[in-house]
Amino acid sequence: MRQEVALHNPEAPRQQHDCEWQFLRLLCAGNLPETLRTELCANTLAAAFTEVLNRVAFEEICRVTTRAAHGSAKALREHLRSRLTARGFPDVDFDDLLDGAELETGDVVARIRSARHRLMS
């Protein structure tokens, strides 16, 4: 289905990339409740990500999230850079991925649920 959309809309790959990146940024948000981050990691398939970097970033976010006492946004900020570099992605725009812009908790929750819905459709 995604391939059909790409044939008719040359902007579709860019839109998919933006959707994936937005979801990852929100998943790293400092005030996203840890329980929601854990739930989203458990219930989102890595295969939903069309770009390898985004898929690997998602996998590493989930690994940090599921480790005991390491699921916090602080742990993501401390470990994600080295984990992605070790997997062959040293040139990630970590400032953008981990930007410190804090949204109100209700806003971040609503936005990440919307981003996940777009990602999975």
Describe this structure in words.
The chain is mainly α. It has one domain (2-120). The chain contains 7 helices and no strands. Helix 4 (52-66) crosses helix 5 (73-86). It is globular, with a radius of gyration of 14 Å. Residues 1-6 have low confidence and may be disordered.
Defining traits:
disordered N terminus, 121 residues, mainly alpha, 68% helix
Proportion of residues in extended strands = under 5%
Q: How far apart are the termini? A: 10 Å
Broad shape? globular
Share of helix among residues?
Answer: 55-70%
- Going by helix content, strand content and strand pairing, the class is mainly alpha
Radius of gyration: 14 Å
Order of helices and strands: HHHHHHH
Number of helices: 7
What is the average of the pLDDT values? 85
Biggest β-sheet strands, sense, barrel: none
Work out the count of structural domains: 1
What is this structure's SSE topology?
Elements: H1 2-8, H2 12-27, H3 34-43, H4 52-66, H5 73-86, H6 94-97, H7 105-120
Helix pairs in contact: 2-4, 2-7, 3-4, 4-5
Describe the structure concisely.
The protein is mainly α and 121 residues long.
